[in-house]
């Protein structure tokens, strides 16, 4: 499907917003992973003052929430196809629309 220049720019702008949200999502997940790695070596350790068992449950919920958000957010703005594992795809593998700046 051919898009007008205005539609192409709108798709690229929406992709930038979605990519920014994905990158922001990485921060709490990485911090949680680091926190959980520190407690896994010490029996009875606490994370932010919470028992490790409670923190592990919270970590599990955080990871499930991050996955659900990614499946919802990381979609092509043009066709809603999943964009895959790359954080910087140049085009959608489903519909072929360009996601980066035109060359």
Please provide a written account of the structure.
With 103 residues, the chain is mainly alpha-helical. It has a domain of 69 residues. It is built from 2 helices and 2 strands; from the N terminus they run H-E-E-H. Strands 1-2 form a two-stranded antiparallel ribbon. Helix 1 runs antiparallel to helix 2. The radius of gyration is 18 Å and the shape is elongated. The chain starts with a helix and ends in a 30-residue tail after the last helix. The model has no long low-confidence stretch (mean pLDDT 86).
**Strand line-up of the largest beta sheet:** 1-2
Report the end-to-end length measured between terminal Cα atoms. 19 Å
Helix content: 55-70%
User: What is the string of SSEs from the N terminus onward?
Assistant: HEEH
Q: Tell me the β content.
A: under 5%
How is the quaternary structure best described? single chain
Q: Structural class, judged by helices and strands?
A: mainly alpha
What summary fits the major beta sheet?
Answer: 2 strands, antiparallel
Task: Supply Rg.
Answer: 18 Å
Count all strands and give the number: 2
Roughly what is the average pLDDT, rounded to an integer?
86
Global shape:
elongated
Count of helix runs: 2
Unreliable stretches, pLDDT < 50, 5 or more residues?
none
